[in-house]
UniProtKB/TrEMBL annotation:
It holds the Pfam family HSP70. Belongs to the heat shock protein 70 family. Residues 411-437 are annotated as: Disordered. The keyword ATP-binding applies. GO terms for molecular function: ATP binding; ATP-dependent protein folding chaperone. This is Uncharacterized protein. Gene3D superfamilies: 1.20.1270.10, 3.30.420.40, Actin, Chain A, domain 4, Substrate Binding Domain Of DNAk, Chain A, domain 1. One of its GO terms (biological process) is response to stress. The lineage of its organism: Eukaryota, Viridiplantae, Streptophyta, Embryophyta, Tracheophyta. It comes from Brassica oleracea var. oleracea. Keywords: ATP-binding, Nucleotide-binding, Stress response.
Amino acid sequence: MEKKIVYQFTLRNSKRSPPLLLLPTVLIFDLGGGTFDVSLLTIEEGIFEVKATAGDTHLGGENFDNRMVNHFVLEFKRKSKKDGSRSSTWISLGSVWSQWRSVSVMLRWTRAVSTMFFTAQTTIEIDSLFEGIDFYSALTRARFEELNMDLFRKCMEPVEKCLRDAKMDKSTVHDVVLVGGSTRIPKVQQLLQDFFNGKELCNEKVQDLLLLDVTPLSLGLETAGGVMTTLIARNTTIPTKKEQVFEGERARTKDNNLLGKFELSGIPPAPRGVPQITVCFDIDANGILNVSAEDKTTGQKNKITITNDKGRLSKDDIEKMVQEAEKYKSEDEEHKNALENYAYNMRNTIRDEKIGEKLPAADKKKIEDSVEEAIQWLDGNQTAEADEFEDKMKELESICNPIIAKMYQGAGREAAGMDDDAPPASGGAGPKIEEVD
């Protein structure tokens, strides 16, 4: 998964105001809703080189939101003597925020927090939060910063790690670029500015942007027979979750990228198609994949978690795999169509009365059986690869072609015999004999 924003900015407070291409070192500070990334770049003659990266896939605006929700839940319980944490409306604001069960609460909370970025205090009001009780609270920026200070300070750790990994001093960083809505929090900006000894931050272009992450490649699993079944298709927006019940053999996988594997054991012996295995693929907003499997008969379970840094492909690898898949898919289709056309044409040929009557019964039966077997193989192997279709074509041709060739040769000899018995044509030239001295 990848998200891109292109920034163009210039040096501030400079008479020459050169473009970004002349900036030697830039630190990108990307603090969004669910993840946090820091990148250190050097730029020379238009070439951007990433010197180091760091981050936290579980740090972002949602963490600050949930911290505040916990604070307000305690305040509600204290004021009303009710357990508001069980309210579906309140839960949607906090631990199940991504499900957006209560749009009105979300909008009010967003407006309240946004206001606090520019003022010292904000208020939040929710009608009938729990059992008909309204909720009202005032929140100061100081209180907000106190409740989240450990998380804000945690944002500085990847910055330090980036500089250490790149073996650079913070004084060599010419510009700090802020990316993501959470970087508008004044305390985050202050900590970052203090870390870089008062350096002015590039924050004038920070905007609210909705970035929809997707899965760059299809996700699936291998079952008996080495076949792949896709559960989550390429370019599906995340977070997403997909379940499927497997009752028999499915798909093919040898050319795909292995992210991880686990074995679901303890499935009792049974006829094909009888065991029912429920497989679930669940990708969260941070791109972390959880795969689980359960035998519905025995209750046996197993699962695996695939993080972003475990076996994931680079952007270039993903593009290469997509291009190769499209190329091979076209080749597979060509060979499949060739085999299909040959089989049906051969069947139509021997069913033609003029040709069928010239074939011995045994040869005709042999072709019919071979063609029928090839067609059934095609029906059951639609996902086969080009070389498999080609092998099947050669196998079918090796049976049919000699029989058809023999038939045409026999027909040719009969026609030639009829010509030998016929009288010479009048005026026809016979053999010419020349004498040579």
